[in-house]
Prior knowledge:
CATH superfamily of the largest domain in chain A: serine acetyltransferase, domain 1
Largest interface: A-B, 44 and 45 residues
Radius of gyration of chain A: 18 Å
Order of helices and strands of chain A: HHHHHHHHEEEEEEEEEEEEEEEH
Shape of chain A: globular
Mean pLDDT of chain A: 93
Oligomer: homohexamer
Helix content of chain A: 40-55%
Largest sheet of chain A: 6 strands, mixed
Low-confidence stretches of chain A: none
Distance between the termini of chain A: 33 Å
Number of helices of chain A: 9
Strand content of chain A: 5-15%
CATH topology of the largest domain in chain A: serine acetyltransferase, domain 1
Structural class of chain A: alpha/beta
CATH class of the largest domain in chain A: Mainly Alpha
Strand order of the largest sheet of chain A: 3-6-9-12-14-15
Amino acid sequence: MKSREGMSERNSAWLWQRIRGEGETLVNGEPLLASFFHSTLLNHSSLENALAFLLANQLGNTDVQPMLLQQVCKETYASEPQIIDAATADSLAHYDRDPACKYFSMPLLYFKGFQAVQAYRVANWLWRQQRRALALFLQSRIADVFDIDIHPAATIGSGLMVDHGTGVVIGATAVLGNNISMLHSVTLGGSGMGAGRRHPRIDDGVLIASGAKLLGPITVGRDAKIAAGSVVLSDVVEFSTVAGVPARLVGAANKSVPSQDMNQCFDDG
Amino acid sequence: MKSREGMSERNSAWLWQRIRGEGETLVNGEPLLASFFHSTLLNHSSLENALAFLLANQLGNTDVQPMLLQQVCKETYASEPQIIDAATADSLAHYDRDPACKYFSMPLLYFKGFQAVQAYRVANWLWRQQRRALALFLQSRIADVFDIDIHPAATIGSGLMVDHGTGVVIGATAVLGNNISMLHSVTLGGSGMGAGRRHPRIDDGVLIASGAKLLGPITVGRDAKIAAGSVVLSDVVEFSTVAGVPARLVGAANKSVPSQDMNQCFDDG
Amino acid sequence: MKSREGMSERNSAWLWQRIRGEGETLVNGEPLLASFFHSTLLNHSSLENALAFLLANQLGNTDVQPMLLQQVCKETYASEPQIIDAATADSLAHYDRDPACKYFSMPLLYFKGFQAVQAYRVANWLWRQQRRALALFLQSRIADVFDIDIHPAATIGSGLMVDHGTGVVIGATAVLGNNISMLHSVTLGGSGMGAGRRHPRIDDGVLIASGAKLLGPITVGRDAKIAAGSVVLSDVVEFSTVAGVPARLVGAANKSVPSQDMNQCFDDG
Amino acid sequence: MKSREGMSERNSAWLWQRIRGEGETLVNGEPLLASFFHSTLLNHSSLENALAFLLANQLGNTDVQPMLLQQVCKETYASEPQIIDAATADSLAHYDRDPACKYFSMPLLYFKGFQAVQAYRVANWLWRQQRRALALFLQSRIADVFDIDIHPAATIGSGLMVDHGTGVVIGATAVLGNNISMLHSVTLGGSGMGAGRRHPRIDDGVLIASGAKLLGPITVGRDAKIAAGSVVLSDVVEFSTVAGVPARLVGAANKSVPSQDMNQCFDDG
Amino acid sequence: MKSREGMSERNSAWLWQRIRGEGETLVNGEPLLASFFHSTLLNHSSLENALAFLLANQLGNTDVQPMLLQQVCKETYASEPQIIDAATADSLAHYDRDPACKYFSMPLLYFKGFQAVQAYRVANWLWRQQRRALALFLQSRIADVFDIDIHPAATIGSGLMVDHGTGVVIGATAVLGNNISMLHSVTLGGSGMGAGRRHPRIDDGVLIASGAKLLGPITVGRDAKIAAGSVVLSDVVEFSTVAGVPARLVGAANKSVPSQDMNQCFDDG
Amino acid sequence: MKSREGMSERNSAWLWQRIRGEGETLVNGEPLLASFFHSTLLNHSSLENALAFLLANQLGNTDVQPMLLQQVCKETYASEPQIIDAATADSLAHYDRDPACKYFSMPLLYFKGFQAVQAYRVANWLWRQQRRALALFLQSRIADVFDIDIHPAATIGSGLMVDHGTGVVIGATAVLGNNISMLHSVTLGGSGMGAGRRHPRIDDGVLIASGAKLLGPITVGRDAKIAAGSVVLSDVVEFSTVAGVPARLVGAANKSVPSQDMNQCFDDG
């Protein structure tokens, strides 16, 4: 059973202490990865430094070298420390909700959904600083490397889990609340050519199962569940479950938080 | 509002002049990307040279170096200049139809859907020159780098927009007309083992929304719309809209061109 | 027509002889790829050596260099030669079932679905040797490079074809039999947080068409067919066809083996 | 004529201000190098940061990545700021003594002699911190990349100019004072197997011309000149000039500082 | 015996025809190098294209990519075709004078002395176009990669052989005539800080043996020979041989051209 | 004091055991190098495997990848195990004769002179197998990477120490005996254009000090010493010491083996 201790004090320093503790065990267990664990985990004094190193290493290329991206990430985190709070919550979201995530360090080390979201958070900060060319460059790199396409103008709260991640698309005017879970191939897409909001708003606690497509400026109320493969074209009321192509209401009054339960299924009545 | 001037004279030289103009602004705006904008845009005298550079840079690896791929691309464009006309139309399709595409240079610089289609156009030329091994190698590189799998034997007209792009699959005997729009995760798949045509034919002006799967040697008539998440197993008449798994007729007599409107939704009646 | 000779003697040595024979033709046909064909095919004395080279080349990076991964692969194959038998069956599955696969060498050289499955087989062996950190590292690399996410703890038989492959997800407790075919964007996903088996069991001969999502600890009986875009939440009886969101029985008593026929369609009655 | 202003205030901040000023001109003059000048010069707030970036970029490889070396350099400079004072003096030594060095930024950007000495200064600090393995690794990288072999245990003062640099060898027990100039192919070599000091001691202001070999625990007095191609096997008195194989006294009582004059010749009487 | 045919018609087209002919034999002889020979030799239609490819491949790095350097080289050759005439003469100089050079293609493929001189010729052209920053960047790359330091402002005639090459230094105001041979570790160095010419002038036909150092604005007359290890501080009359530290006249009235004979020795009387 | 134990049993297995023992200490001492020590030392079961890995890693490039060079090295060692005996003797020569070489593992890990000689031994084997193109390619790579130019046709015995190494040149018809020591910038050069032997023969036990140039088909008798900076144009009798430009006899009847004593000096009488 995974540790739930310290739920009340889980800030980034707390998390980093646990990740480093795992790193100290890992580094002795697999010689081929000793330097990987050292350079990615043990070498850093904080979660933000580790993230800056890892994102730079994954997204740097001959156009923009890793050392330069590392500096951009550090500048982002120094300027807006709440981004590290969000990264902490994202990381713990994976730990708490994904049975395959058995260690605190796994999202950072291995999960492309987590890594892509953290890179988006840097791109979003750049976007808000009017450094839009670099934000778009990063979006393009994220799409190439992780196959996840999040527009840097999108608004995303904390505690987001993107599981597996390949194929996720989140549009420029999408707004996501806190503690949302989504799986691979989820689309929060626009529709049509109009100005103004073109993409969905997703409230807290929502679970969007794999392959679901939510299109247009709709709203999904809190603690709702979107079943796998659904195509959602209209608002979804809070606490309800929708499914199908197009999606229809198949359940109501969810008693628990879908994004925590991670039950992608629905009552196939 | 994006510029619509010069619709009648939008050839590749016209487009290249605008892209370079944007490049001159961009290069001074973001020092980290100065050389990227210079080497990708300002350094070239024409769209074909810029494309050859960019595709080589994205698809080259230790097996075939960028300089060699650049030469292959240049040879392709010199031999069949219509490919650059098609690239011009593809680029403008993104500019005209995608609200997130605010500059003429964005497809070239950032959009993997656009880049993958241009790489396919080179692979298709190689295929027709009987250089099939290199065409298949390129297909494999495109699938690895962009996560888009287009068989080099497929036939594709001009003015194609592939938005986002991750997960798109287009089979060997597919035939696509002009001015088509499709989104990520679209499949134009084969079915069964028979000889002859095994994949769909898509006529002009069709919009295929995200995640739609069109299977077998069916025909989709002009200006039809395939809704998101649909599974299409039979012919679709022109001007109509189909949706669902399997797809059924949900609307008829579209009055405008779906691939221009980019309305992925349908009347959820 | 592709050769079916020697069906009874198609072991890895037999296959390797054919692949090398093709390589000798290819190497003279495309000068740009001469070293690629030499280093990937002609340079090796056996399928296992070629696979070790190719996987190392695709998955190595600055964290773990190709030469080290090559050694891990060789160690795997030496320790468990049945993995090469499975690779042989996988390779022939592509050759036999995919009309676009015209040569024995194509899966090895070009098909990311095949390559990802072979990399999983190495990761799975590492997982069973308790080298879990390296197994998870490989899973992460496979997901980044091929956009295919197979948990190393999953159990997979031989003769698997994963066509195109982008977006496939197979969870940790999934169990796959022999001679299964699946296409891109297929999910064998978990559901919920419980312990024990959380993912599907797929029996021999099943075909899972593109984009189908199978969720939870369900069982799909032998020679069943899952239509494209289906969302399957409950057991599927053997020899039957299911389709839809959620999937319903649409056909029964398949007379041939769906994974061989590769007919993704179903009777759209 | 090069600027001599501010001789009294030439600290690292003063130098960095001038280097950055040059960088601002350079970045607009050569588009191909815009990012090079930006990333190497304009992107940094101090000489130490620029040096850490540059050395990491030059010496990093697949064994130790640039980002890790950058961190080592920063740690070195933070721990012992005098190393930056020495780097400043070395840089100005090139500017003052080399007619081909027309800009303050040239040693940093282009001169392998300067770069190798700065890398030695980091290796030497590591050596003194008992991180001898990393010090030896760096020595080996410096020898591979710059063809200059300086043992990290050597003691070197500030204001050293190593012009051109290829082939320079400085042994472990060599001791160099301040404001020394040497050219390429100079050897400060050991002789024999004994313990204790085995290499030369060079006092302040000495000029060692190209190809000179000084062997064994000899002493070269201040402001002496060693002519090109000399082989020096015994002590050299201060202010004198020696030449030949083996070297003999050819001049005495130098009236100016040889390392400043850079006159490699001697009176060929 | 190496071919001397066609002495009167040995232009770059003639040479390229021979090099390509050798390439066609080589490409079938060593499979590991098949693509190397193809990409370096067979893939090109002229010596200038092959040189541009090779220099770009050797000198490109993360600061300036190979494709960009290739373009710079091509621009150079198009603007000043005499540089290719000089490259042709340099290449034939190796073929004619070096017993280890048994094929016309060897200098291009393997000899760092030849490659460094060709890169200098590009840097020199850039220098004369006032693109001095890029010229200095190239000088620095040549010094790092080939360990040969030629200032781009130096003036060098055609038919230069630099054998082995490591450690050669040629200063900014050096002037070299035609048909000169020099070996590794040769220095044409400056002396002192004065303005004006500071480096040697070397006339046609001179041989400078390994390790010789020529310092200051001296002149070496035509068909003179500088013995190995000499330190030359004063003028050398034509047809004579000098040797020693400092160099003295040891022979006079050379009857043949020393740079052709390649006799590094002298009469040790 | 360095260990001299087991002088009689110092074969490659004995040496490898000591190197690995050192590796086990090193890997825990410097986290940044943990994977370097693991991949270079601990990961291998024998000296030949470690050498093949290391040489491949140093000399591989985009033209010939490391994995292919590794295979060439392994093939060489399997075909002619005496090469590993020679490598063992070379490695121990550094350990025994170089006071800066304090560990058995240092030549393998850090010394470019040792690494270049081992790469030559592979190139020499290829030359003798008539794979001359690959041998010349390797020679060129060694010259680029290590700045040491040894013709693959040269004949070199075992127990060779090349200290520091930059600038060493050894010609095609040179013949070196056993237990020779030489320093950087040593040339064993040819002279003139004649057929037949053009380079020196060096007998057992000779020491050639830094920068010495030996030219033409001369013979240096056993246990002779060539002083630093000498230019040797005629035979040197056994047990004697020569020095100067040109070299003259300066000492006779050496009582010990110069290559062991490593005394570069001579009696400056």
